[in-house]
Design goal:
This protein is of the alpha/beta class and 272 residues long. The protein contains nine helices and ten strands. The longest helix is centred in the middle third of the chain and has 22 residues.
Amino acid sequence: MKFIMFTKHLEGLDVPGIIAALKSVGVQGADLCTRPGYPVNPENVETALPEAARQFADEGLSIPLVTTPGDFTTPDMDYAERLYAACGEAGVQHIKLGYWHWKPEQNYWEEVDVVRGYLEGFQGLSEKHGVQTVVHNHSGLSMGLNSSSVMNLVKGFDPKHVGVFADPGHLSICGEPIEMALNIVRDYLSVMAFKDLERQRVVQGGKTRWHTRTVRLGHGFGDWAALLRALKQVDFDGPVSFHSEYGGEPMDTVIDLARTDVRFFKGLLGEG
């Protein structure tokens, strides 16, 4: 497995700053957040991504995965072709899409057909540029909220071009038991997102709401021993993105917590 870090909460750093942070955390590369406000973004991706990849390579790091804006959900968006082409040139293997959200007024199965139509277009871009499209399972009203639902979206597509970005954190909130979850998607499993979540019931003014927050690995709802068994059962050897979504913390603290998460998982692997 190759350990990488999601750079969402490194916002404000330039590429050399991101590289320094990743080295401090102890990972081998980036799940590069390619969104407005970041060094590589939809406006400059054609030139900035290949240049960033060169800078990473000079430091012994890589960019196996790019995470797009949350609204990057259709293959006809104005920068889609440029993004895929830039990833192909830069040697990026995977592009994580945004999210399709179900609404109560929608017919779920009709929306599945709509999403699969979009994925057909993304599969064409992936085949053309040699970069796999991945769908992230995300709790809430996401159309790919767990393994069963994400398979409704991707099943039948070529796994070389369309894959699943499995997230044990979100699966612990609304997914199947982790060993079952990874077995369901095993033919499409391409990338893993590592984070731990907990869900709290909050009552305010007589109204109940649920609050989900990221906690350190091993402190949330995730069954990490079962996850290790599941990874071995499906023979997973792809990139692992430490999400380190500690929003609201100072950047130095985010980096410290990310380093702690990596150390925690290496300890489970017996790597100390």
